[in-house]
Amino acid sequence: AQKVTQAQTEISVVEKEDVTLDCVYETRDTTYYLFWYKQPPSGELVFLIRRNSFDEQNEISGRYSWNFQKSTSSFNFTITASQVVDSAVYFCALSGSPGGTSYGKLTFGQGTILTVHP
Amino acid sequence: ETGVTQTPRHLVMGMTNKKSLKCEQHLGHNAMYWYKQSAKKPLELMFVYNFKEQTENNSVPSRFSPECPNSSHLFLHLHTLQPEDSALYLCASSNRASSYEQYFGPGTRLTVT
Questions:
Q1: Residue A62 CA neighbour count, 13 Å, CB half
Q2: Is A42 close to B43, i.e. CB distance below 8 A?
Q3: Which residues in chain B touch residue A42, judged by CB atoms under 8 angstroms apart?
Q4: N or C terminus: fewer CB in 10 A for chain B?
Q5: Contact residues, chain B, for A104 at CB < 8 Å
Q6: Exposed, middle or buried: residue B16 (CB in 10 Å: 0-12, 13-18, 19+)?
Q7: pLDDT at B98
Q8: What is the pLDDT of residues B80-99, one digit of tens each?
Q9: Are the beta carbons of A35 and B101 separated by less than 8 Å?
Q10: pLDDT digits (tens, 9 = 90+) for A52-88
């Protein structure tokens, strides 16, 4: 069975601070896919990134960066110089490899509520 | 319209009512999904449709009945619901029921009284 744990239930920061959202996962698949989604107050989940397990390069997109460490089964998300508009619930998710029972089915973590104060 | 749309955005229904949720995707995808998001619980996958065929039913009670007439439309028919079914119901689509990223609609906030 797959599992995603986001230990941080809520994080509160002041604008311009950097913030890291933690994600730890469990899977028996040798290849898998990891995702981050953002859910603003409007309710719609917004896709942010997909990472394949065989690609351990870290990625940066503007103020967002992701640190994938297979050795520790972690896929952490950092927002640099946070802004009020970053306030949302952030979900980490996992999907299994082709041929596996979890292929194509996202397993979500509980989510981290991020509040950025002006 | 673009993306994934859902109607209605809010729905209040009694336990004896019958209602339907509608989802439409304008992304050319061929897989569609229903998720349930309850307070204090992770998002739960309910159903998966791949090329209009149901490929996953995640032990969902029969009072929830999905329908996928084509790759662009997905319905969730509701009848004799319970108060614990109150939740945000999210629709998503992707390019095949694979590990391609899923794109979500804004959800329907359902309250069962």
A1: 6
A2: no
A3: 106
A4: N
A5: 31, 48, 50, 94, 96-99
A6: exposed
A7: 64
A8: 999 999 999 999 999 876 66
A9: yes
A10: 888 878 888 899 999 999 999 999 999 999 999 999 9
